[in-house]
Design a protein that fits this description.
Layout (H helix, E strand, L loop, with lengths): L6 E4 L1 H5 L9 H14 L3 E5 L5 H13 L4 E5 L4 H10 L6 E8 L2 H7 L4 H16 L4 E7 L6 H13 L4 E6 L6 H14 L7 E6 L6 H10 L4 E4 L13 H10 L14 H12 L16 E2 L2 H9 L18 E2 L7 H10 L6 H16 L6 H10 L5
Parallel strand pairs: 1-2, 1-8, 2-3, 3-4, 4-5, 5-6, 6-7, 7-8, 9-10
Bound molecules: 3-methyl-2-oxobutanoic acid and zinc ion.
């Protein structure tokens, strides 16, 4: 693996599927897992096997069909969870157990009623136990975002000694600022013995809308795995959105970071996940929303018709969207009207366009959007033939 390759750990089927209303059956999970493998993600977190018999079955079935990606199962730092995960992953070509425990003061005090030292012991035991089943063991320090850096470094050092291959630093509550999260990763890179032998992973939540920024900041500061979901779905406000991370690295070559994801499959994968989960993204969702490549104001439309790059920083074809759309509303100008009429077979002279435009505006004021059907009505009213 090159030093600049950021591995994509997709958790759509685990953190994403935890969302109320997003539950999938095994067949649906298999379809999505196959697509994620094709998309080129490095790791698929297939589920939390101990959580239910259905989840166990899904992780087992996914393990059998995934050809390229590592298949991962989540556990708590409990022996039984780890045994069940190992069992569910036994058919995987490349299995990974993802185990961990809360490390922030609030988790230690309220969730575990424990002490920092005891948590380190439990973390080490869990990693060692997972290691007795699989070579690849990822450790998560839950609520690392609110964990004191010095203590977090001690936890990391201890689990590396126990055999962890990947260290996940989750901002579980979506609290961190990008500078703060990046500094946390940098601190660990500089202060943990053995860190050069493991991969640091960013797992960020979107409670303050910073999940993608935080993950990118983590990668800029040395993390080489990002945990994310299609469409950014996940607990509460969601997780880092896979499609955003992939396109940020692609559109900013100066960062010198890349993923193995085939970006041209992003839009269709997003649609597939929306339909199976029944969870639809907002039209203004970055990269994959309906409006991500739609232009509706006259000034922007005029620019895009002259040259797409005036108002678009990425080529829609790069994410699998066929073309930018010019949406006609009462804010559209003559250039957009002429462009859309031409696409519908009406070539207007300048005079015809000047006469039609005020009619168009009157009509558009009565509609949310002027579609092709309305354009034909307008042409009929203006007595212009295609
Ligand atoms: O947000 C989180 O901390 C998690 C862990 C279980 C990795 O999802
Ligand atoms: Zn999470």
């Amino acid at each position: 693996m090159s030093d600049n390759h950021v591995q994509i750990f997709d958790t759509t089927l685990r953190d994403g599927e935890q969302v109320p209303g997003c539950k999938l059956n095994t067949d649906q999970k298999l379809i999505i897992a196959e697509r994620l493998d094709l998309l080129g993600v490095d790791i698929i977190e297939a589920g939390f096997p101990v959580s239910s018999p259905g989840d166990f079955k899904s992780v087992e079935a996914i393990s059998k069909i995934v050809k390229n990606a590592t298949v991962c199962g989540l556990t708590r730092a409990h022996k039984n969870d780890i045994e069940v995960a190992a069992q569910a992953l036994k058919f995987a070509k490349i299995p990974r157990i993802h185990t961990g425990i809360g490390t922030s003061d609030s988790h230690i005090q309220f969730k575990f009623k424990s002490t920092q030292e005891k948590i380190i012991e439990r973390a080490q035991e869990a990693v060692k136990y997972a290691k007795s089943f699989v070579e690849d063991v990822e450790f998560y320090a839950e609520d690392a975002g609110r964990t004191d850096n010095e203590y977090l470094a001690r936890v990391c050092e201890a689990v590396i000694k126990s055999g962890a291959t990947v260290l996940n630093i989750p901002d579980t509550t979506g609290y961190c600022l990008p500078e703060e999260y990046g500094a946390k990763i940098k601190y660990l890179k500089e202060n943990v013995k053995g860190i050069e032998n493991v991969i640091l992973s960013c797992h960020c939540h979107n409670d303050l809308g910073l999940a993608t920024s935080n993950a990118v900041s983590g990668a800029i500061n040395g993390a080489r795995q990002i945990e994310c979901t299609i469409n950014g779905i996940g607990e509460r406000a969601g997780n880092t959105a896979l499609e955003e991370v992939v396109m940020i690295f692609k559109q900013h070559p100066n960062l010198d970071l890349y993923t193995n994801v085939n970006s041209q499959l992003l839009y269709s994968t997003s649609q597939m996940v929306q339909e199976h989960m029944g969870m639809y993204v907002q039209p203004n969702k970055a990269v994959v929303g309906d409006n991500a490549f739609a232009h509706s104001s006259g000034i922007h439309q005029d620019g895009v018709i002259k040259n797409r790059e005036t108002y678009e920083i990425m080529d829609p074809a790069d994410v699998g969207v066929t073309e930018s759309s010019i949406v006609l509303t009462a804010r559209s100008g003559r250039a957009a009207l002429a462009y859309r009429l031409k696409n519908n077979g009406y070539e207007l002279t300048k005079l015809q366009l000047d006469e039609t435009y005020p009619e168009f505006l009157k009509f558009a004021d009565t509609q949310k959007e002027i579609g092709d059907k309305e354009l034909h009505i307008l042409m009929e009213r203006c007595k212009i033939k295609a």
